[in-house]
Request: fold
Amino acid sequence: MPENFTTRELDIRTGSRETVYDLTRECESFLRDAAHGRDGLLNVFTPHATMGVALLETGAGSDEDLLSALHALLPADDRWQHRHGTPGHGRDHVLPALVPPHATLPVLAGHLALGTWQSICLVDTNVDNPHRRVRLSFVG
Reply:
């Protein structure tokens, strides 16, 4: 890998409930170590077939609103062809088509260039797997 590329894998516990997990602090910590004040791009990727990465305002109800919207779009019932795990688990495998498992974000002078209320979040509806991995990569 070139010197201007750095990557780190994180182990994240999302718990046994559907969740929107704010990853922003972990991303900022990684950039302090990796970016050294440079401009570049941060890629956030999760190698799971049942989880996504979203930019979202957290703490004001938007995280719960997103989970409610996903429930409306992807009900946890027996309609899904993919049938293992908890009832309705097939919907968890459709989630990454709506909330992709990656995001690429601008980094300016070593800091995330997010909007005022934006946070980088993991969206995890899979209650069967509370142990998750996330790969952060910086190029700059």
Observations:
- The chain is about 25% helix and 35% strand.
- The helical segments are 24-34, 62-73, 90-98.
- Strands lie at 5-13, 19-22, 40-45, 51-56, 102-108, 111-112, 119-124, 131-139.
- The CA atoms of residues 2 and 106 lie 19 Å apart.
